[in-house]
Amino acid sequence: MVAAISIEHTGTFNMSETGEQWKPFSYGNFFTGQFFLEKPDLKFFRTQAQKYGFDEEAYIAAVKKVPIWAREQLENYLYFIKGLIAVISESGMKRIKEIEHRKQIQKSEKRYRSILKAAIDGYWLTDTNGRLLDDFSVWEKLTRIEDVEKSWQMMKELIEGKRERFEVEFEMRHKDGHWIHILSRSNIYKDANGERVRVVGTHVDITDSRHQRERLRLSESRYRKAQELGKVGNWEYNLKTAEFWGSDEAKKIFELDPHKDRFTIEDVESCVIERERVHQALAEKLLTEKEALFRGLFDHMTSGSAVYEVRNDGSKGTDYIIREFNRKSLEMEEKKMEEVLGRSLFDLRPNIDDYGLISDEKSMGNRHP
User: What backbone torsions phi and psi does residue 317 show, to the nearest 5 degrees?
Assistant: First the structure.
């Protein structure tokens, strides 16, 4: 007889992030070779040789070389083969899973590399021994030696657990020859056992933001100097919080605390001799704000409205002088503002006295019909 044992995986496992599973499949065969369980019938094999045209003597000689195994010997052999198959199967499946897992990692890294390249100007990876997983030599060549040394020292402290975060700014030579400002940040990542395994860092070009900050700082410096030379300060009053803000020069003029940013009305009044004038100015400011609010509401009303100055006894159309006319009223009367302001109701509607509209006007509380 001839024995051939097939090694077959009978379980399933996830092969990707999508949760797709592999079905059972055979990935190898184990051949035991030829053997007999009893003494062969040579007459039968001679008949076979004659039937298929084999060399009869050579065929019989080959049959006699096949070993004859006892049942117990075969069972022991198959038990050994079964164990060997299990070891080979487990090893093979583990290898397949490792390959698939590596493919998924590579795919994931490729995806995140693309994201990083699109989102920032550069990134880098190291292991916890400081060995770079990406080429870092270009950075070392284009960065000032003192910044390189400082960065590596901070990296060493991060890996050793002496600091939780790495963040540093330095200058780096651009490929066109000029220097740019770089913000470098990095974090250390741990495996499932809490062991530090990798450092991931990024490089961001902050040249423009640095220049903007510098321009802003210079502008503020000139502004402060101009106020100092002119002995002019400025202040702001917050209507919601009832607090004052003052510039540095304003604080000097009023001898206020230079370290404070906000001041109460009492703080400011304590520095002013003519307090009544301050109160009047603030009252006028509040009145102006409220008047502006009223005018806005009045002008956007959906009905026609007007404000009149009433003269004499208010019994005639000439006694009502128009002082305000909202947009809806102008639209209804098909007039422009300069055509109605200062005019009387009689000018606007000459027949108003004949039809008793004045009494209606009074009853509507000066609402324009």
Answer: -65, -25
Digit-coded pLDDT (tens) for 130-171: 454 455 677 778 888 898 888 888 888 888 888 878 888 888
Burial 222-233 (b: 16+ CB within 10 A, else e): eeeeebeeeeeb
DSSP state of 23: P
Cα gap 227→223, rounded to integer Å: 6
What pLDDT is attached to residue 14?
45
Considering only residues 335 and 119, tell me which one the structure prediction assigns the higher pLDDT: 335
> Cα 295 vs. chain centroid, distance in angstroms?
44
CB 9 within 8 A of CB 41: no
Q: How many residues does the chain have?
A: 369
Residue 115 lies in a domain: no
Q: Which residues contact 126 (CB under 8 A, 6 or more apart)?
A: 132, 133, 155, 198, 199, 201
If asked whether residues 311 and 334 sit together in one domain, one would say yes
Indicate whether 7 belongs to any domain.
Answer: yes
Give me the residues paired with residue 132 across strands.
126
Last residue of a domain, one of 243, 276, 294: 294
* Reported pTM: 0.35
Residue 349 has pLDDT above 60, yes or no: yes
Quickly state the pLDDT bin for 7 (edges 50, 70, 90): very low
Average pLDDT over residues 82-88: 75
CA–CA distances in Å: residue 276 to residues 2, 103, 234, 266: 119, 81, 20, 13
Q: What is the largest CA-CA distance in the chain?
A: 151
d(CA 19, CA 13): 9
Beta strand ranges found along the chain (DSSP E):
2-9, 25-34, 122-127, 166-173, 179-190, 196-205, 235-238, 243-246, 263-264, 306-310, 320-325
Q: Is residue 133 located within the same domain as residue 84? A: no
Taken in order 147, 152, 158, 163, the sign of the CA dihedral is negative
Q: Identify the bridge partners of residue 307 per DSSP, sorted by sequence position.
A: 324
The one-letter code for the residue type at 92 is G
